């Protein structure tokens, strides 16, 4: 449930201890995204296990020892397993994006009354991230307006 982008943004001055926004609900995007590491590790592990069985069933090739064959096939099947794990993760991640929903969060002292429980730190970080995203969207809109105005001014100047 945690979004890694929460920790990528530097904290704004005074926002860390500011709890004045906790009384009003904050609009937040809720998405349960899968973590990629377990998928990659599991895929690689299954690739190596399949290599063990492959060498045990098929035997060795001419001129190669069993450990050489096992090492080569373990590396090959491990890469294939990691790739398949990444593809499964990608499909699940895309699916989780389709099931995103916007929720309104508010700090409460009664966890039984809440639909989802977050710590104060998680709530504050999530709230700050959403506020920074809104500010960035407004800034982009202002930049686009300024560019359009500059273009219009340039066209009027030519005439």
Automatic annotation (TrEMBL):
<keyword id="KW-0472">Membrane</keyword>
<feature type="compositionally biased region" description="Basic and acidic residues">
    <location>
        <begin position="1"/>
        <end position="10"/>
    </location>
</feature>
<protein>
    <submittedName>
        <fullName>Uncharacterized protein</fullName>
    </submittedName>
</protein>
<feature type="compositionally biased region" description="Basic residues">
    <location>
        <begin position="150"/>
        <end position="159"/>
    </location>
</feature>
<keyword id="KW-0812">Transmembrane</keyword>
<feature type="region of interest" description="Disordered">
    <location>
        <begin position="140"/>
        <end position="159"/>
    </location>
</feature>
<feature type="region of interest" description="Disordered">
    <location>
        <begin position="1"/>
        <end position="25"/>
    </location>
</feature>
<feature type="transmembrane region" description="Helical">
    <location>
        <begin position="69"/>
        <end position="92"/>
    </location>
</feature>
<feature type="transmembrane region" description="Helical">
    <location>
        <begin position="36"/>
        <end position="57"/>
    </location>
</feature>
<keyword id="KW-1133">Transmembrane helix</keyword>
């Amino acid at each position: 449930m945690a979004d890694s982008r929460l920790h990528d943004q530097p904290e704004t001055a005074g926002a860390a201890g500011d709890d004045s926004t906790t009384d009003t609900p904050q609009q937040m995007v809720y998405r349960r995204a899968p973590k990629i590491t377990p998928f990659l590790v599991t895929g690689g592990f299954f690739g190596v296990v399949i290599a063990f069985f492959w060498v045990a069933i098929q035997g060795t090739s001419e001129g190669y020892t069993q450990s050489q064959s096992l090492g080569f096939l373990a590396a090959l099947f491990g890469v294939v397993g990691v790739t398949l794990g990444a593809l499964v993760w990608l499909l699940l991640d895309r699916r989780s994006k389709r099931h995103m929903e916007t929720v309104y969060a508010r700090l409460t002292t009664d966890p039984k009354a809440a639909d989802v429980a977050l710590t104060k730190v998680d709530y504050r970080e999530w709230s700050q991230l959403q506020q920074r995203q809104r500010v960035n969207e407004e800034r982009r809109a202002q930049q686009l307006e300024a560019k359009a105005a500059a273009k219009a001014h340039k066209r009027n100047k030519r005439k």
